[in-house]
Fold these 4 entries.
Entry 1:
Amino acid sequence: MVTAIRTNKPINEAEATANSTLTGIMGRISAYTGREVTRDEMTQSDLKLGPEEIKFGAVKKVFTIPVTGAPPA
């Protein structure tokens, strides 16, 4: 990566990242179902692992900032 930056030659890791993610999902589904899962089965699956609609906007969550020495909230 350092060489790519110094030589101004971009690195495209999209395929490796996609394969790694698919492997992780396959492991998760295999662990949940207790059976072997194939790559073809996963690429043809209609399984949805995310929200129905992805959109930008406000997050409805209260974030607390920890303070050293203060009791936990």
Entry 2:
Amino acid sequence: MNDQRAGDGYGDGLTAAQAARTGLEQIAELTGKQAEGVTGVEPGEDGWIVGVEVVEDARIPSSSDILAIYETEFDLSGQLLAYRRVRRYARGRGDSNGGS
């Protein structure tokens, strides 16, 4: 495998910033839900893994919205390989995964 992880991208492939934007757009299109933002971008085996926060269930007041994190996987050319919902939670409820 040619590992050219220089700076923000892989050689001539997709940069981290481009992967983040692509993740936001793809999740919004695939789920039909409002993407709030990117929660993380990390290099994958042959591309990028991008976490995207989505409003799953908008409520009134918005402080009671149900949010979700979707994980997307892209190859170096920006093609979506996979996506999945990895977490659902109420807005404002801190991280319940035991983090410090």
Entry 3:
Amino acid sequence: MSSLDPAAIQEQIKLHEKDILQWLKKLVSYPSENRPPRGNEGDAQAFVARECVKLDLDVEHFSPEDVPGIREHSSWLEGRIYSEGRQNVNAVWKGSGGGKSILLSGHTDVAPFEPDNWKECRPFEPLFKEGKLYGRGTADMKGGIAASFWAVKILKELGFRPVGDIIFETVVDEEFAGGNGTLASRLKGYNADLAIYTEPTGMEVCPAALGAFLGSLTVVGNPGMPYTGYSIPNPISGAARVVHHFAEWEKAWQKNSSHPLFTGKGKEVKTLLWHIDSTTPGTFTQMGTPMITKISWIVWCYPGMEEKDFFDSFRSFWTKVFSEDPELKPFSFQLEKEYHYVKPWETDTEDPGVRTICESFERVTGKKPVIQGAPFSCDIALYGETGNMPVIILGPNGDNLHGSDEWVSMEDVYSLTEIIARTVLSHCG
């Protein structure tokens, strides 16, 4: 164990609160949007790399597509483009040897700022107001990145000498069911005895997260204009019935799905219909009844669900619906996968790393942590399955993620900085 007094960490964070805020504002000011197939993380990643060099960490940056064998991996998502500095940043603080290592991880890509109904500030001109920092990416997830970075910086300033290695990383291309950045760092060998991933969990300690199935359902009919008096069933009307049945599916999905780490309001598995289109690819769109209407959807799942089991059940549901609903009988349907399966994951709550984080949390906040599953999908399985690490998600409170006036609680960012620093002290000392 290190002889460093943990109370000194809190004092140092207090001294640096304004610096942490300014550092986070700077990171948020880089418009590191992910707009598939491209992304704009280059400037943000360059900033992080420079800051890590200042801390005298061993820094490497690399493109996901340059990692040997990555394209053959089952989790690789084809079609993304990595150019203009769109690279991972991995920084290592080497320990003296023989101790446990830790990985502090986050992604710098953010969702696009649209729809543009921002009121508190412009998306990349962050504003601090009444304890909240507003701006795109403040909560998802640059606030968590700031906490991880400053935990390392403050431990450096206090003269901590780790026994185990400390890895700080920021990856690219997590949004839009990405994962290639995280996969690249795992295959590159930046793995540890414990991983902390600082997605915004509302300060819940989350050793598990949801998975996500993504796809499309296309209602197929016959196009035309009813000039001669006969009826042409419209697949747009058919799509309206599909929306109705999606609500039925969600109720049944929730009734038949459960997990002990996902209890209470907001932890249910849900569905999301996020895009609808009646354009037939590669053809001119007539002013008439379209041939198709395509609905893009997401269905979330708990840990333990297999992709094949889901799609078998999902396809059976829609086959029955289209054969029995009179309004859908004029149509056929096509069910297709899109992007890839974002796998769920669960770390054993009895893992020593979970206990260490919980102990740090209680010492910092004076409260016992809430241990729950994170009600969102992310890259967690790439840490657990591919990196073979126990992984915990812990991040600050915030709101309006992927929406206008996104914000993060700065008080939580400061607390999270101390929790992470204390965890590193206990784990790597």
Entry 4:
Amino acid sequence: MKRYNDMIRELRQDRDLTQKDIAEILGTNQRVYSRYELGIQPLPIEHLIKLCKYYNVSADYILCLKDEKNGKPNKGLTN
């Protein structure tokens, strides 16, 4: 099952951006951003919001709660 760190990596790579590029957008450094992608450090909510705006996707999409293509909950999620 995908996690948000996988999703932010995929979004970045799909646009041929470096970790440094995204770190600058977030106002942090590449080392910190790398830790988000590796799942070592949690992504702060303010960075999640910036990423959603930058990539023009919902937080649910980045957090793997919904499949943005059809708006339905991802399979495998339980309440």
